[in-house]
Amino acid sequence: MAHWTGATFLGWSLGFVLLLLFIAVAGMLGVGNAQFPLGLGMGTGVGALQRRLVAERVQAPTAWWRASILGVTAPFVAWDLAKLLRVPLPYALAGAVVLGGLTVGVLQARVLRAHSSRSAEWIPASLLGWALAAVMVAVNDFLPKIPGLFGALIYVAVVLVGGLLLGLTTGLALEHILKAPTPTV
After folding, report:
1. What does the radius of gyration of the chain's CA atoms come to, in whole angstroms?
2. Most-buried pick from 71, 121, 157, 185 (CB within 10 A)?
């Protein structure tokens, strides 16, 4: 459990760095207003660090990582496409993260299916974990705005707590899910 929580927190932290990098690259490519780099960064970071631990129990680390990347990125891509097609959709970062958690849950539950009869329980666990992480992103909207480096550090620290909550929530669920017997075919 502690390993999962730590790996997820580090993956969330890596995802934060990656999303900044992907935003910069998108800007250089002329698509700086696109939102998909946010999901791509977080999905890549979290999935990369979780996949090592998943490999020990599930033997499908690449499928897990791919599900993380696709699942978190999908809602952001949908928003970008709606904007491109001039379909008016309200954008909410926290909402996109929550939808990403649901999508990740569905895709990763499919990976878990061959290893546990409780694999469907991963969907609400993933949704809850990513929702708690999204809440921490939204918490910054309610904090007093502190200018300068100190304010930026507080913002980042609050966002990073989301990775800890994601790790704790999904770690507890994954332990429970993988204790169940493997389904018979």
Report:
1. 17
2. 71
Mean pLDDT of 24-39: 92
- Would you say 104 and 166 are in contact if contact means Cβ atoms under 8 Å apart? no
Structure tokens at 168: 């704790």
How far apart are alpha carbons 133 and 94 in whole angstroms?
9
- Higher pLDDT residue, 161 or 182? 161
- Residue ranges of the domains in the chain? 2-179
Name the band, by pLDDT with cuts 50, 70 and 90, for residue 183. low
Pairwise CA distance, residues 136 & 155, whole Å: 10
CA separation for the pair 32, 125 (Å, rounded): 33
Rounded to whole angstroms, how far apart are CA atoms 99 and 140?
Answer: 20
- CA gap 39, 62 in Å, rounded: 18
Q: Which residue do the tokens 């700086």 mark?
A: 32
Asked whether the beta carbons of 65 and 47 are under 8 A apart, the reply is yes
